[in-house]
Amino acid sequence: MTSELPQRPFSRRDSLAALLLAFSAAAPSAVRADTYPAKPVKLIIPYPPGGGTDITGRAMAARLSDVLGQTVVIENKPGATGMIGAASVAKAPADGYTVLFGAASEMAINASLFKNMSYDPRTDFEPVTLVATFPLVFVAPATTKASLQELIEAARAKPDTVSYGSIGSGSPQHLAAELLSSMARAKFLHIPYKGSGPLVQDAVGGHINMAVSSVPPAVPLVRSGKLRALAVTSAVRSEALPDVPTMAELGFAGYEFNTWVGVAVPKGTSKETVDKLRVGLVGALAAAEVQSALRDQGAVPVGSTAEQFRQFVLDEVAKSDRIVSQAGIQPE
Predict the structure, then answer these.
(1) Which end of the chain has fewer CB within 10 Å, C or N?
(2) Which of 240, 44, 49 is nearest to 134 (CA)?
(3) Can you say whether residue 140 is alpha, beta or left, with left for phi > 0 and alpha for psi between -120 and 50 degrees?
């Protein structure tokens, strides 16, 4: 990737230290800023209450309100894999009072999957900060013994006979598996599910050979012995699953596919407003309860600059374009 984000993945201690340093350095500018925010700030979360993005956003909002000295109101606008909520922010006034707390799908991946989106994530927002990255994990039924490499070899020998589940076509989980398929030169059978719950339960029941899951629903099932964790998709091992190898450790050098959450505002929002909002977000990100919410999801906090996040989004769209093309997925 060409992003200016650090090439060596941060440990949690490194990340927290960097966030505290950034907040202390940026704090004086908050004092000098103009009257923003002079009224409540609306944080749009384009997913239903209770999911990972919502949990993280709510934890951030509570502390962001303290830092900004203004109420931060959560508004959930789910639908169309995050695009309904994201589109509402893209069309909002560029004054900093309508803020997108979004994720990888609506802020990058969907640009590779849909021909006629009502907004362009690359050009219709002013990036504020990349909040955190989240690894995914490949899991298999505990009743089976095949390693990931053995499943790959079986898929090479007999294409479309080794099945894997994701939370839906075009989801980050789907693309993570397709990236592995491309790098391993193996063709798996994709089984899309409507949500993480049915996905991991079918994996437990042995109805699919493996599943690509977010970390929170998988961890308790791995720890209880109902699922086997085969590999994580991040560049370094997850603190939530420290004994599980990365794809690179299993021989797939350069493999990395994380989900993530970030904050953006409508295009045309002033740099001063973006800067002040970022100061507040970095301060919120350093709070203990936010760190705990992220840790529970196996996440790594980031708190990037606006320009780093802008480049990150461009890189993520380009990566999705490559995966979609290689997988033969037809944009809708």
Answers:
(1) C
(2) 240
(3) beta
C-alpha dihedral (8, 13, 17, 20), degrees to nearest 10: 120
User: Distance between CA atoms of 110 and 87, rounded to whole angstroms?
Assistant: 12
Question: Six-digit token pair at 164?
Answer: 């894997």
Please name each of the domains of the chain with its CATH number: 12-134+259-327 (3.40.190.150), 136-232 (3.40.190.10)
How many C-beta neighbours within 10 Å does residue 13 have? 8
Q: Give the SS3 label for residue 139.
A: strand
Query: Where in 71-151 does DSSP place strands (E)?
Result: 72-76, 98-103, 125-141
Give the pLDDT band of residue 216 (cuts 50, 70, 90): confident
Structure tokens given for 21: 């340093």
Q: How far apart are CA 198 and CA 203, in angstroms?
A: 9
**Mean pLDDT across the chain:** 89
Secondary structure (3-state) at 171 = coil
What the block records as the tokens of 65 is 């309100």
Token pair of 319 as six digits? 């990566």
Integer Cα distance of 178 and 321 in angstroms: 12
User: Which single residue is written with the structure tokens 């707390």?
Assistant: 101
Task: Give me the count of residues in the chain.
Answer: 332
Backbone φ and ψ for 258, nearest 5 degrees, come out as -115, 150
pLDDT at 23: 55
> What is the chain's Cα-based Rg?
20
Q: What is the mean pLDDT of residues 221-242?
A: 95
pLDDT digits (tens, 9 = 90+) for 120-162: 999 999 999 999 999 999 999 999 999 999 999 999 999 999 9
d(CA 104, CA 90): 16
Distance CA 23, CA 18 (A): 9
Beta strands in the chain (DSSP E): 41-45, 72-76, 98-103, 125-141, 163-166, 189-192, 210-214, 227-232, 258-266, 300-301
